[in-house]
Amino acid sequence: MKIVDGLRYTTNHEWVLVDGESARIGITDHAQDALGTIVYVGLPEVGATVVGGALMAEVESSKTMSDIYSPISGSVVLVNEALVVSPGLLNTDPFGAGWLVEVQMSYDETLEGLLTADEYRSLTA
Q: Which residues fall within 8 angstroms of residue 18, CB to CB, at 6 or more apart?
């Protein structure tokens, strides 16, 4: 299972790449593996407000429908439109082409509850 250093993680298996006041969000390799073949991704619209810990998106796989919770609060500034056509990108490249959204963060303190890569390794070991 791949875990990328330098990212922050949630116990719900989402990852966050912080770049200044914005952050890219996706699901982890562990999450995509547990879900199985992903066939649909429902993403928020650009301009939508997301709240840390609240429902942000949904993913449907051959096994189940799964809710994705936002690890941070802010406003969605970009969505990965490629996932609409190719939801399997979440399976093949969850840390790259399979990212979900970019969010302009509104509260820095929401980062405090996120796990480091080493803490996430311990969680998933």
A: 8, 105, 111
Tens of pLDDT, residues 35-92: 999 999 999 999 999 999 999 999 999 888 999 999 999 999 999 999 999 999 999 9
Position 22 scores a pLDDT of 92
Name residue, tokens 């073949």: 37
Q: How far is CA 61 from CA 15, 42, 92, 110, in A?
A: 19, 12, 14, 29
What's the topology of domain 8-106?
Answer: OB fold (Dihydrolipoamide Acetyltransferase, E2P) (2.40.50)
Q: Which of 30-34, 62-66, 105-109, 119-123 is the least confident region? A: 105-109
3-state secondary structure of 73: coil
